[in-house]
Give the backbone structure.
Amino acid sequence: MDFRPELSWEFLSEDEIIAKTVRALRNHIRHVKEYSAFYRSLLGQVAPEDIASLDAFARLPLTTRKNLAESSSQFLAVPAAQIVETVVTAGDGGRSLPFALTASDLERIAFSHALSLHGMGVTAADRVLLLMSLDRCFLDGMALYRGAITVGANIMRIGTGVSMQAVLQRYLQFFKPTILAGTPSALRAIAADLARNGYDAAKSPVEKIIGAGEALSTKELAHATTRTALETLWGAQVFSIYPLTELSVAYGECAERNGGHAHPELVYTEIIDENGRPLPDGEIGELTATPLGVEGVPLVRYRTGDITFRIPGGCSCGRHSCRIGPILGKKSQLFTYRGTIVYPLVLTNALDAIDEIQDYLVIIENDERGGDEVTIHAAAPPTALEKIKQAIRDSTGVRLQVLVSNVPTIRGLRGGTTRKIPIIDHRGKTAAKAE
Ligand SMILES: [Zn+2]
């Protein structure tokens, strides 16, 4: 593929992007009404010509994950023979859903990720060590792999696994990768493991880290502790990329590292309130997006369930594409404590910043009156208890129950998994069991 990032819409003026987006949305509605049985029925009364502004588009009905789960075959807009890959969406506490991609969809994903990588300054001269899962039908690793190929970088697919420290050390020493891509929590643990083996990751040739799928900024857009810790451990600059399987796009940080840029030719991004109305820039709501140019499973105003906001104003990198803040949590994981909404990311950022905490788990349950009951289990010395409580009060504005615990107990509460799961939400489980 001839990759020409300089031709991307994101370098056009804001007005030009809006004009092109309205045209693309109109064509998109025409396309889904012709090829998708779900939208032929849902948008029966809508004439594509009526989509003459973003306001007109915002009056269209929303698509939910439930729609996708219940009517998946109705969404397929190509003959089954045209599907070349099936991936699965992230679980979000429920079942993961299969998602069909055509050859053109794969090219589109490659282009989306290549634009993000270009924004981070990745070039054909870079050597990328990919520490992400390329199997189990996940999109993220495959998407970054294809994006890096499109940029022309040299990629080494190490993957994930418990026994990879020795292999990784050899790769770092002999192939001198300039870029690492993986999940931030895993890359942090790997650096600590390497240090135990006598290898100082900060002295490695790695210059940049691409952290996928975990927020690396605070709600105020400062660098989160995980980002600064990774930068110190690896002696590298850390960039965040946020891929979404159903949208087949990623929101990636540019060199300014101040929000994830959307690629406007590939996705139209809205933030909506509880009633589905678009919110102005800066206001917190649900990320809702319309991917453009998708063949297999095209979507219109898809509610992602992720809570974030659009960042007001242009970016000093010169792109005029919309930027989103960090994902503050899944909509389903927000909780209200004595009238105050607590965003999961704000709480986990506060806990991540406390050195004395080895591990922690936030458990959300229903209390007797149907409200939200929150308990934080922290593997930390009892002497740190007051400091933890104070940090939670300072960041969230509420006093939450904190229990001093230990790593094996917390692992047990997670069901024995060694994966870092920061929050378990038991709300609504009793009702579900009774069904
Ligand atoms: Zn930028």
Summary: The chain has 14 helices and 20 strands. The radius of gyration is 22 Å. The longest strand covers residues 237-244. The domain at 334-434 is CATH 3.30.300.30 (GMP Synthetase; Chain A, domain 3).
